[in-house]
Amino acid sequence: MTEPVAISETERLISSDKVEGTRVYNRQGERLGTIRNFMVNKQSGRVEYAVLEFGGILGIGNEYYPLPWELLTYDAKQAGYCVDLDKTRLEGAPRYRDRDPLWDEIYGQQVYGYYGVTYPLF
Amino acid sequence: MTEPVAISETERLISSDKVEGTRVYNRQGERLGTIRNFMVNKQSGRVEYAVLEFGGILGIGNEYYPLPWELLTYDAKQAGYCVDLDKTRLEGAPRYRDRDPLWDEIYGQQVYGYYGVTYPLF
């Protein structure tokens, strides 16, 4: 099988499948989890949230934290995203466990509000 | 293992991993291929291209067509994307095989230009 040599990242762009599974660290270098997936606005093509997966063993007890895309900065040295977020701040953050939230605008405003990021017009 | 019941799509949003692997049809109902991945602008969080994978057997001879996100409309009946694109038009379209293109703005303008879509400011 010949797979193309994928340029999964340039200075400007990143491939969707490279984002998924990428580790997330905070500025203290603590590992917060990995990006499970991200939600794209169908109309505008803008990413509305990335979903950070955290905790649990073998998928049991995992928790999912929607994060505004703006929070994520890729750090080549750590080969992961670096987020300005300490663990106590994450502990109080909007999250879900067994079932995805409804992803409506009210939820969006809650999430962005928690992180002090202006909820964009998608 | 307990995986959450993922709402992979709402009226507004679609999950990244649902986009990948989705079949693409044209208006004549012909299958054009599947979405392999898509490229996101790291800064703005906007999707710049979806990559349509087409042809080949077991990965040999596949070709990859970058498409402006705006071209894709999800059609629940076909459980796939519907694109206004006949096969002859696709045959002349920008594509790559063994190696991803450089994904710079010149390339972006070529791709968007081919499909008659204004290249947005990302």
Q: Count structural domains of chain A.
A: 1
CATH architecture of chain A: Roll
**Structural class based on helices, strands and sheet pairing of chain A:** alpha+beta
Write down the Rg of chain A.
Answer: 15 Å
Protein name (chains A, B): Sporulation protein YlmC with PRC-barrel domain
Pfam families (chains A, B): PRC
Domain PRC-barrel (chains A, B): 14-87
Describe the structure.
The structure is a homodimer of 122-residue chains. With 122 residues, chain A is α+β, with helices and mostly antiparallel strands. Chain A has a single domain (16-114), classed as SH3 type barrels. Chain A contains three helices and seven strands; from the N terminus they run βαββββββαα. Chain A has a six-stranded mixed beta sheet with strand order 5-4-3-2-7-6, covered by helices on one side. The radius of gyration of chain A is 15 Å and the shape is globular. The N and C termini of chain A lie far apart (40 Å). At the A-B interface, strand 1, helix 1 and strand 3 of A face strand 1, helix 1 and strand 3 of B. Chains A, B: InterPro entries: PRC-brl_dom, PRC_barrel-like_sf. Chains A, B: Residues 14-87 form the PRC-barrel domain. Chains A, B: Pfam families: PRC. Chains A, B: This is Sporulation protein YlmC with PRC-barrel domain.
